[in-house]
Amino acid sequence: MDFQELKKKDGAYIAGTYNRFAAEIYEGEGATLRSEDGKEYIDFGSGIAVNSFGVNDKEWKQAVIAQIGRVQHASNLYFTRPQAELAEMLCGKTGARKVFFSNSGAEANECAIKAARKYSFDQYGEGRYHIVTLKNSFHGRTMATLSATGQEAMHKYFMPFLQGFSYADPTFEGIRAACGDGTCAVMLELVQGEGGVVALDPDEVKKTERFCKEKDILLIVDEVQTGNGRTGTLYAYMQYGIAPDIVTTAKGLAGGLPLGATLFYDKTEHTFSAGDHGSTFGGNPVACAGAVSVLSRIDRDLLSEVQGKSAYLRTYIGRMPNVRGVSGLGLMIGVEIEKNAREVAERCLEKGLIVLTAKSKLRLLPPLCVSKGEMDAGLKILNEVLSE
Ligand SMILES: *Cc1c(COP(=O)(O)O)cnc(C)c1O
């Protein structure tokens, strides 16, 4: 099947919810991908921050294949080793007390929303269910997480949305003004990903944390995209110096397999008990085995490599023509340009570089293991396209 046939088949049978780029991803190594007809791409996208160690990573493959050879799924009615091992590892590395596993970012956030409401119900009774999120945020595509998403453009067609959400300006004053007696939680991304790779101001975040603690409003940090080493610390909240009550993550956690995790810290550790929440696939042993392989390698050395690669990419991109500014943290990089981002991304693709967009910016999310050679090859193409 050549590319034109593939495109035709996809268009005929797949619900048209995606405005796909004109490339087939077939195989690859690290941050170098190939289509079946042999065209090569440098990957500055990681499948949207998912393939933490690129593709075809030996250690990850071994861990996943070994688990597939034992049992691929057991359900949460029984005990499995990879799940317990991963939960222990997540708690050990973060100070979290308990973990709930699901299959995606949206589900990890659904779980956080349910937990925040239950925590408040347990402490204060009915009515204290309001959750404040930020303008320009993105928390997922399910009904509850769409309701939590602070973008007007996403709040159409599917009415009624879930009630109990409001959207604050991304400052302490904005958040405080949006909180009332009925507020049970504030939920935020520390670097808004889909919203344009915008990092929040650490002082505003610290003040928000203090205010939330005073009012017993839970602080939920959505680390679906920022998590698992992406921003140069294991989780972005660690470099903001805050202690959240709930953290959600997914994308890069299992290195390419669907896995979501909701982390509960001291205050929320006992919020859920048997029957309060569940998932058939959540915490699938193959996905968990992949995640153990990923997490066990996100150590101090790797994180300092991520920071070094970030500085390298940012320096070179900052000097390119038609670049207005570079935003983000670690290997989550936004590039504000004088050109149309989608057109630049399409042109890069033609020349063999995969980049993403976020709002009017380019968004770069290379695998954490991207090599110097791959970075240089990608930068060369980006520079050519931006110079055109
Ligand atoms: C991608 C993303 C989500 C949704 O994750 P899915 O796995 O697509 O459900 C939620 N929050 C943030 C911050 C994200 O980047």
Keywords:
alpha/beta, four-stranded mixed sheet, seven-stranded mixed sheet, Aspartate Aminotransferase, domain 1, binds pyridoxal-5'-phosphate, Aspartate Aminotransferase, domain 2, 388 residues, 38% helix
Summarize this structure briefly.
The chain contains 13 helices and 17 strands. By secondary structure, the protein is an alpha/beta fold. The radius of gyration is 21 Å and the shape is globular.
List the helices and strands and how they pair.
Layout: H1 3-13, E1 27-29, E2 32-34, E3 40-43, H2 46-49, H3 58-70, H4 81-94, E4 98-102, H5 105-124, E5 130-134, H6 143-148, E6 165-168, H7 172-178, E7 183-188, E8 191-192, E9 198-199, H8 202-215, E10 218-222, H9 237-240, E11 246-249, E12 260-264, H10 285-295, H11 300-318, E13 323-329, E14 332-337, H12 341-350, E15 353-354, E16 356-358, E17 361-364, H13 372-387
